[in-house]
Write a structure and sequence with these properties.
The protein is mainly beta. 4% of the residues lie in helices and 56% in strands.
């Protein structure tokens, strides 16, 4: 990330990371307490079922998604927000091409190291 100083980061110059399966992400900002990530989905892209100890709040920037959280399915679209408690099994399928802003607490160290599981398929 482009640092303006030790405290401030500008994300506009950061490249999108291709995750595979029609999904790309860009880190918007983080420290050890919190992380914000922008995630783009092609229509039909799937975030496979997974769980993690992080608290997650997601804002739907554009598109339409079906989220399943702890066995409950819900359709969300631009302007909606989703809260996911730690350790709940959740997934999402993109019904109309779109973009999400995911915020995690604490920071997703696995995202930074690249050692975490892939929720999106093979990188292409």
């Amino acid at each position: 990330m482009k640092r303006v100083s030790e405290k401030y980061i500008i994300a506009k110059d950061i490249e999108w990371e291709v995750l595979g399966g029609g999904v790309s992400r860009k880190f918007l900002g983080y420290d050890n307490q919190i992380m914000m990530v922008s995630v783009k989905f092609d229509k039909g892209a799937l975030g496979s079922p997974h769980q993690h100890f992080h608290t997650q709040a997601t804002y739907v920037v554009s598109g339409k998604f079906e989220f399943e959280i702890d066995g409950v399915k819900q359709i969300v679209e631009a302007g909606d927000g989703v809260y996911i408690e730690p350790n709940l099994l959740h997934s999402a399928i993109c019904l109309e091409e779109g973009q999400l802003i995911d915020t995690f607490s604490p920071v997703r160290e696995d995202f930074l190291t690249g050692n975490g599981p892939s929720y999106f398929g093979d990188k292409k």
